[in-house]
Design goal:
Layout lengths: L16 E6 L6 E4 L5 E4 L2 E4 L9 E6 L2 E4 L7 H10 L9 H15 L2 E5 L3 H11 L9 H11 L6 E6 L4 H10 L4 E6 L8 H6 L3 H4 L2 E5 H6 L3 H7 L4 E8 L4 H8 L3 E11 L5 H8 L6 E2 L6
Parallel strand pairs: 8-9, 8-11, 9-10, 11-12, 12-13
Antiparallel strand pairs: 1-2, 1-7, 3-4, 5-6, 5-7
Length: about 300
C-alpha cells in the first residue's frame, strides 16, 4: 500500500505544499505555505498561519483568518434560500436560468476554501488549468491512460524523460510505492522544472526509488550511484514526454537500454516529423511502441 495513504489525517504545517481551491471556484492553486504569508485565491485572502495545526479539509475565511468548518456548520440549503429570496425575478426564470443564477451567486459570495494535500490528480488539473502548454496539453485522463497502457505498477523499472513539470515522473514514483525504480533523465546539470515531484512530498522510502540523471552523465559516466541505477538495464518501460526536444533524439540516447520486448510511450507537442520518427521505429525491433499523441 502507498505510504501516502497513512497521512490522510495529518495536520498542516509550515513549509508544507498544499492545494487551495475556493468552493465553487474554477482555479486550483498549488503553493508552499510559510509564516507571515498571505494566501490569495480568487479575491479571497487569509493568513497562512491561521491554518497551521489544523487538519486538511474545508475552511471558512473571516477577517483574514481561515478556520476549519465542522460538518454541523455546513448548511448549503440555507445559503441558497437567502440568495433566492433576494431575487425578485427568480420565480419567472427557466430551470436552466435558475441553476445558472444559483451557481453564479454561490461562487461570488462563497467565503469557504478547500485546503488539500497534493495528489497526482490535483496537480495535473491545476497545471493544466493554469497553463496547459507547460504540460504539453496533458489532461489528467490522458495521464491515467498513459500509466494504464504502460502498465506502471509496484516493483517496475521505468525510464522517464519528462518535460511536463515532472507530472509524469511524480505519477510513476507514486505508483511504484517504494519498490522498483524511476530513472528520470533531464537536460542540464540538475533536474529543473519538476515542481510536481517536490509538491508530492514523498517519504524517504518512496523517493529513494527515483534517480535523476543528466543526459550527458547518462552517456559518459558509469561509476558510483550511476552504475547502481544503470545496472537495472534493459528497462521494460520507457516514457517520453517532451515540449521542445524531439523524442527521436531521446530515443537515440536510451536505445541501448531498451528491452527488446519492452514498451515505449512517446508524447510530444508539437509532434515530430513522421518520416524521422517512423524510420527510427524500424530499428526498435520487438519493442511495442504505443503512440500517445495529442488529439
Amino acid at each position: 500500500m502507498n505510504e501516502r495513504a497513512s497521512t490522510h489525517f495529518s495536520t498542516i504545517k509550515e513549509g508544507d505544499y498544499v492545494v487551495v481551491q475556493k468552493v465553487g471556484g474554477e482555479h486550483i492553486r498549488v503553493m508552499r505555505l510559510a509564516s507571515k504569508q498571505k494566501v490569495l485565491i480568487e479575491k479571497l485572502k487569509f493568513d497562512a498561519e491561521s491554518v497551521f495545526g489544523h487538519p486538511y479539509g474545508l475552511f471558512e475565511v473571516s477577517s483574514g483568518k481561515a478556520m476549519p468548518v465542522c460538518a454541523s456548520r455546513i448548511d448549503r440549503e440555507e445559503g441558497v434560500s437567502k440568495l433566492v429570496e433576494g431575487s425578485k425575478s427568480f420565480s419567472t426564470r427557466t430551470e436552466y436560468s435558475k441553476n445558472k443564477y444559483i451557481r453564479r451567486k454561490t461562487k461570488k459570495h462563497s467565503d469557504r476554501v478547500l485546503i488539500l494535500k497534493p495528489t497526482i490528480r490535483l496537480l495535473a488539473c491545476s497545471y493544466y488549468i493554469k497553463d496547459c502548454i507547460r504540460v504539453s496539453n496533458l489532461r489528467v485522463d490522458q495521464l491515467g491512460m498513459i500509466l494504464q497502457l504502460a502498465g506502471v505498477h509496484h516493483g517496475k523499472n521505468v525510464l522517464v524523460f519528462d518535460q511536463v513539470l515532472g507530472v509524469v515522473s511524480a505519477a510513476v514514483i507514486d505508483r511504484l510505492g517504494g519498490d522498483g525504480s524511476c530513472i528520470h533523465l533531464h537536460r542540464g546539470i540538475i533536474a529543473q522544472s519538476i515542481p510536481c515531484v517536490h509538491c508530492m512530498d514523498f517519504s524517504e522510502k518512496v523517493f529513494l526509488n527515483g534517480f535523476f540523471f543528466s543526459v550527458v552523465d547518462y552517456i559518459v559516466r558509469r561509476v558510483g550511484a550511476y552504475s547502481v541505477a544503470l545496472n537495472l538495464s534493459n528497462f521494460p518501460l520507457t516514457l517520453i514526454t517532451t515540449l521542445c526536444v524531439d523524442p527521436v533524439s531521446v530515443l537515440e540516447t536510451v536505445f541501448q537500454k531498451l528491452r527488446p520486448c519492452g514498451r515505449l510511450l512517446p508524447l510530444h507537442h508539437p509532434r515530430p516529423t513522421k518520416m524521422k520518427y517512423s524510420n527510427f521505429c524500424q530499428l526498435l525491433s520487438g519493442i511495442k511502441v504505443i503512440p500517445t499523441g495529442l488529439p
